[in-house]
Amino acid sequence: MFAKVDGDKFTGFIVERGTEGFTQGPEENKMGIKGSSTVQLYFQDCKVPVENVLGEIGKGHRIAFNILNIGRLKLCAAAIGGARMALNLSVEYAKTREQFKQPISNFGAIKHKLAEMAIRLFVAESSLYRTAKWIDEKEHELLAEGKSFAEALLGGAEEYAIECAALKVYGSEVLDYIVDEGVQIHGGNGYSAEYNISRAYRDSRINRIYEGTNEINRLLTLDMTLKRAMGGRLDLMGPAMAVQKELMSIPDFGAEEEQLFSKELKLVANLKKAILMTAGAAVQKLMMKIENEQEVLMNIADMAIETFNAESVLLRVMKIVEQKGEAASGYQLDIMRTYLYDAADKVNKSGKDAVNAFAEGDEQRMILMGLKRFTKAEPLNSKDARRRLADKMVGEGKYCF
Ligand SMILES: Cc1cc2nc3c(=O)[nH]c(=O)nc-3n(C[C@H](O)[C@H](O)[C@H](O)COP(=O)(O)OP(=O)(O)OC[C@H]3O[C@@H](n4cnc5c(N)ncnc54)[C@H](O)[C@@H]3O)c2cc1C
User: Fold this and answer.
1) Counting C-beta atoms within 10 Å of the first and last residue's C-beta, which end of the chain has fewer, N or C?
2) Which atom of ligand 1 is found nearest the CA of 216?
């Protein structure tokens, strides 16, 4: 637990069960996660021995925030595990449930759902594995610099706190999406407590609330980014100025050498420019008032999360193709291309909503034009791509990418 020593020094403590003055309330009657005990804890004149202080007095925030950082990454991992189970249940059900004399997995509407569930799951995995690897590398770097194990753990998680917040948001929303569509695929049975998917639906919901609500985590992704920029730890100004300059220039339509992934790499680079342009204009225009414009902050956070995911899935698929070859990576390519195709539109919509909230006249027109330019994606037959993914899963009887 955490409390303030002398009224202002935020500090972590271990409080043993049985300590005088420490009691707990009755078990909460929850909507879901009924296997997990939840009670309120009361501390009334509770005397805690000094050796139970965790870390240093006044430095509790380091422990609290870093538990949260790693907790958010782990929440994403847990959400992915649950999502995979819910998807597998749905594939199995869609194969066996017959309507109009055929399995419902034959219907395009159901194929679309199964494929979209798989796409989001694969993308969440990609961002999670990428961040976990970064944290691992940072920990090893800090250990090599002579830092203690505890310091390396804290430092690794702190370095990637922004990504951990993004993972928490995306992982919990992917799980909610998948269990919701899972119930839908189960039809009326999905609403029956006899089917496991209804339990998954109830259990899933808490993930958007604890470990910092998704609203707070969206705000945090930006807050931490801006603080790092102001502290000189992250260069945002340089790239933002470069995008402004590019906007003033005539677009280069020259023929580029076509290479596998060149279009996707360009799109991801452009999505980053769309964020820099929108966020840069918002900061310039709103200055200190930006904190009061949470809708704009939410829009920018969504652009950032989409783009982080788009890059993560692209890099993962590039690696898969490198290892297995293009011909053997068709499903992963379908997933990546469909995600990027949708991400471009989502970034465009969030960007437009943000810009229309604070800009007007020539400035507004110019940024909207920039958004259109930076979120232009190649046409894609996403219906066929999704059908291929759904058919593969139905054949295998599970998520298999
Ligand atoms: C099953 C369960 C287990 C839990 N386990 C733990 C635990 O182990 N340890 C622990 O410390 N806590 C735990 N919690 C508490 C949990 O972390 C909080 O419920 C959660 O952080 C939300 O806080 P709140 O309930 O006070 O909601 P509120 O803060 O009242 O939020 C209500 C709504 O307002 C929004 N909101 C609040 N502030 C802002 C803001 N500044 N800007 C924009 N929107 C805002 C929120 O996003 C939310 O949508 C648990 C909760 C549950 C339900």
Assistant:
1) N
2) 47
The residue annotated as part of the active site, out of 116, 211, 306, 311, is 211
- Name 24's Cβ contacts closer than 8 Å, sequence gap at least 6: 39, 40, 41, 42
Q: 47-56 pLDDT, tens per residue?
A: 999 999 999 9
pLDDT reading at 257 higher than 90: no
* 225 lies in some domain: no
- Exposed (0-12), middle (13-18) or buried (19+): which is 265, by Cβ within 10 Å? middle
- Identify which of 53, 28, 50 has the alpha carbon closest to the alpha carbon of residue 41: 28
User: Hey, whose CA ends up nearest to atom 32 of ligand 1?
Assistant: 213
Residue 35 lies in a domain: yes
378 is catalytic: no
Q: How many angstroms separate the alpha carbon of residue 70 from the centre of ligand 1?
A: 18
Same structural domain for residues 286 and 361?
yes
Residue 9's domain comprises 2-54
What is the pLDDT at residue 150?
86
- Are residue 80 and residue 185 in the same domain, yes or no? yes
Spell out the alpha helix ranges (H) of 42-98.
60-96
Q: Are residues 189 and 319 in the same domain?
A: no
| For ligand 1, atom 6: residue with the closest CA | 210
CATH number reported for the structural domain that contains residue 279 in this entry:
1.20.140.10
Q: Per the domain annotation, does 228 fall within a domain? A: no
Q: Give the residue, by CA position, lying nearest to ligand 1 atom 18.
A: 210
Residues 164-201 have pLDDT tens digits of 999 999 999 999 999 999 999 999 999 999 999 999 99
Tens digit of pLDDT for each residue in 76-113? Answer: 999 999 999 999 999 999 999 999 999 999 999 999 99
Q: Which atom of ligand 1 is nearest to the CA of 30?
A: 1
Q: What is the CATH number of the domain that holds 15?
A: 2.40.110.10
Q: What residue owns the CA closest to ligand 1's atom 33?
A: 213
Cα separation of 128 and 311, whole Å? 12
Mutational pocket test of ligand 1: of 36, 37, 74, 209, the residue with most ligand atoms within 8 Å of the beta carbon: 209
- The answer to whether the CB of 277 falls within 8 A of the CB of 367 is yes
